[in-house]
Every structure is written in structure tokens, then in C-alpha cells.
Amino acid sequence: MLTLQFIPYKEINNLTTSGKIKKILDLVKENKIVLVEGKLRSNEEAALIERTMENVTKSFKGIELCTIKAEEDYGLISKFKAGMVSLLVGNRQGFTIIGPAAIIKEIRKDPTKVQLFTVDKIRKRRR
């Protein structure tokens, strides 16, 4: 069974970087695909990858990660509004997908859709 776990922005907003990483990795190690509202900061993504590499074992192969950004309007007023909103409520534009590498084969994204391909465990066992 495939499980998706949604983490709203408000649930991780006040956590430290290590707190966010721990919460995400604990869920991913339970073979859940995590959908985080908003984007992780670049230093948080780097720390997540680093911590993941430290935890790779025979049973935990690592993670697949993909950040989906919201559509951007390049008008001056729109940029100003988006900047003010980010300052007031945090970076909630877009979302981040994180899942176990043993389950997620590939994540493809383009402007109109996201495709998440998983490993077919039944076929894999028959081979």
C-alpha cells in the first residue's frame, strides 16, 4: 500500500532545521511519501540530503526529493505582493515531495503536471 502524508506549513514553520529534517525523515523511513506545503530553504534541503546520506542502510536506500514552485507572475506589482506575503506568512508558495528511494523510481515535472513513478514491488519479487 502506498501512503501519502501531508505536512501543512504551520506544522513545521516553527521547527528548527534539524526538527524539520527529523520529522520528514521519520515519516519517509516509514515508507511514506511526504508532501510538504511550501518549499524548504536551500540550506534545509542540503541538511536533509546530508542527514539522509548518514542514515543510508540496507533497508533505507535514501530519498527522492522534488520541489514544485508556484506559477510566477513577473510583473513588478505581483513580485512586490508575493514578497510581502512571504514576509508575513512564510514561504507557502509551491510544495515539496519527499519519498523513500526504495519506493519512488522517478519524479518528473513540467509546467502542467507532476508524475511520480513508483517501484512495482510485486513484479520485483517475481524476478
Kindly describe this structure.
The chain is α+β, with helices and mostly antiparallel strands and 127 residues long. It has one domain (3-126). Helix content is 39%, strand content 28%. It is built from 5 helices and 6 strands, in the order E-H-H-E-H-E-H-E-E-E-H. The chain has helices at residues 9-12, 17-29, 42-54, 76-89, 121-126; strands at residues 3-7, 32-37, 63-68, 95-100, 104-110, 113-118. Helix 2 (17-29) crosses helix 3 (42-54). The mean pLDDT is 84.
Number of helices: 5
Helix content estimate: 25-40%
Q: How many structurally independent domains?
A: 1
State mean pLDDT (0 to 100 scale).
84
Spatial strand arrangement across the major sheet:
1-2-4-3
* Structural class designation: alpha+beta
Q: How many beta-strand segments? A: 6
Summarize the helix and strand pattern as letters. EHHEHEHEEEH
Low-pLDDT parts are none
Described by strand count, sense and barrel closure, the largest sheet is:
4 strands, mixed
Give the CA-CA distance, first to last residue.
20 Å
Give the overall shape. globular
| Estimated share of beta-strand residues | 25-35%
Cα-atom radius of gyration? 16 Å
Would you kindly provide a brief summary of this structure?
The chain contains five helices and six strands; from the N terminus they run βααβαβαβββα.
Essential attributes:
alpha+beta, 127 residues, two-stranded antiparallel ribbon, 5 helices, four-stranded mixed sheet
